[in-house]
Design goal:
This protein folds into 2 domains: 2-96, Double Stranded RNA Binding Domain (2-Layer Sandwich), CATH 3.30.160.100; 116-168, Sigma 54 modulation/S30EA ribosomal protein, C-terminal domain (SHC Adaptor Protein, 2-Layer Sandwich), CATH 3.30.505.50. The protein has helices at residues 14-29, 70-100, 112-115, 129-139, and strands at residues 2-8, 34-44, 47-56, 60-67, 122-127, 143-148, 154-159, 165-168. The strands form 2 sheets. A 4-stranded mixed beta sheet has the order 1-2-3-4, covered by helices on one side. Strands 5-6-7-8 form a 4-stranded mixed beta sheet, with helices on one face. By secondary structure, it is an alpha/beta fold. The chain contains 4 helices and 8 strands. Strand 5 (122-127), helix 4 and strand 6 form a beta-alpha-beta unit. It is 36% helix and 34% strand.
């Protein structure tokens, strides 16, 4: 990490450099990989001005603060940078979470009694796949839900439009 200190109209004391160094270490703990940091400290009449420019791997942060004391200006500038870093992290996390959520299906108005019928086409005890196919063919049903004896998972057998049988066995 490269740190540059610039003093305008005054010489920067070592104590301010030490405080700035400690605060930069604190910023590293927030998870920011700092490449370069520039601290410009200036005195203009009664104002003590601190400008911070921090460049990290993915972004840069800039803060400028004025007050009657150089130490107060430095602390305010670092607080502003911390807020910027936290806000950037929250945006990144939100963006990442939004990408993970699958797109929602459009809600279609459904008349519950007209389109939905309750069915008891399931086999309550675990059976093998061959027994389920025999049971399915013997009862001439369109769909059969059962617990697979081998994998201990819920499975579904249904007849496709082309006449073949298909098996659905989810991985949860």
């Amino acid at each position: 990490m490269k740190v540059n200190y610039t003093g305008r109209n005054f010489e920067i004391p070592q104590t301010l450099k030490d405080i700035a160094g400690k605060r930069l270490e604190k910023l590293k703990k927030l998870g920011v990989e700092i490449i370069e940091a520039t601290a410009i400290m200036a005195v203009e009449r009664h104002n003590q001005i601190v400008e911070l420019n921090i460049k990290s791997k993915n972004s840069s942060f800039i803060a400028s603060e004025k007050s009657n004391s150089m130490l107060v200006s430095l602390r305010k500038a670092f607080d502003t940078i911390e807020k910027q870093i936290k806000k950037g992290k929250e945006k990144y996390i939100k963006k990442k979470r939004r990408a993970e959520i699958p797109p929602t299906m459009e809600a279609v108005p459904v008349e519950a009694e007209a389109l939905l019928t309750r069915s008891n086409d399931y086999f309550p005890k675990p059976i093998s796949l061959e027994e389920a196919v025999k049971f399915f063919n013997a009862n001439k049903k369109e769909i059969l839900v059962f617990r697979n004896l081998d994998s201990k998972k819920i499975a579904v057998i249904y007849k496709r439009r082309d006449g073949t049988l298909s098996l659905i066995e989810p991985d949860f």
